[in-house]
Design brief:
Blueprint lengths: L1 H20 L6 H22 L10 H23 L6
Subcellular location: Cell membrane
InterPro entries: Transgly_assoc
Protein name: GlsB/YeaQ/YmgE family stress response membrane protein
Amino acid sequence: MLILAVIVVGLAAGWVAGLLVGRGRFSWGQLFVVGLAGSFVGGMLGSLLFGDGLELRPSGLVGSVVGATLVLLVVRTVLERQAGKSPK
């Protein structure tokens, strides 16, 4: 059941981050990976901000979306630089 919850939260966080950053640029698979990575990034940032150290704790959907948005912005910037475009 936990694995299913992680998959659903990762997919939802990636989808929302895709909406915030810009639709149509990333596939569902990429958004899923970004959502999972964002869950970890959001969880670590939440732990650091609230003084829990670097323990892995459930970050919730908001932390996952924030983390996924940050990861997606970094990925987009790297891809644009590789393509020779300047980031916006």
